[in-house]
Amino acid sequence: YMIMENSDESLEKYRRIRKKIVYELWKAGVPLMAGSDSPEFFLLTGFSIHDELEAFVKAGLTPYAALQTSTVNTANYLGISKRKGTIEVGKDADFVLLDKNPLEDIRNTRSIKGVMTKSKWYDAVAVKQLLEEGKQLGR
């Protein structure tokens, strides 16, 4: 068996290799998907997606391609693209409204103005309240 050295140098080498693999897959036309299992360990679902989208861009994807990893590509893979994945008439109204353009800077996905899900609108105040309630449940 192989013992992996746990050092900053080996971790940085792992990250460089991972970025290169992600970029080469994307460049070859492989549809990538965002998921709660990356880019690092001990992630919190719903929050880590922002870090993952940023990691895709740091690996060389365009912000548009990074956004597709959590929308179009996922819906296509799951076979639900007739209902989800894009904003179109007749599709489920599940989306996040942002204050800033994520195509200019992918970190703008964090500028959440509101969330529409299951035909219900949650403005920024309601989203903050839900997050606070979630914190209380976690204690």
Q: What is the CA-based Rg, rounded?
A: 17 Å
Judged by helices, strands and strand pairing, the structural class is mainly alpha
Helix content: 40-55%
How much of the sequence lies in strands comes to: 5-15%
**What is the end-to-end distance?**
41 Å
Number of strands: 3
**Low-pLDDT residue spans:** none
- The secondary-structure element order is HHHHEEEH
Largest sheet: 3 strands, antiparallel
Shape: globular
Average pLDDT number: 88
What is the helix tally? Answer: 5
Question: Which structural traits does this protein have?
Answer:
139 residues, mainly alpha, 3-stranded antiparallel β-sheet, 5 helices, 3 strands, 10% strand
In short:
This protein is mainly α and 139 residues long. It is built from five helices and three strands, in the order H-H-H-H-E-E-E-H. The chain has a three-stranded antiparallel beta sheet with strand order 1-2-3.
Q: Would you kindly provide a written description of the structure presented here, covering whatever features stand out?
A:
It is a single chain. Helices cover 42% and strands 10% of the residues. It has helices at 8-27, 48-58, 63-68, 72-78, 124-137, and strands at residues 95-98, 112-117, 120-123. The protein is globular.
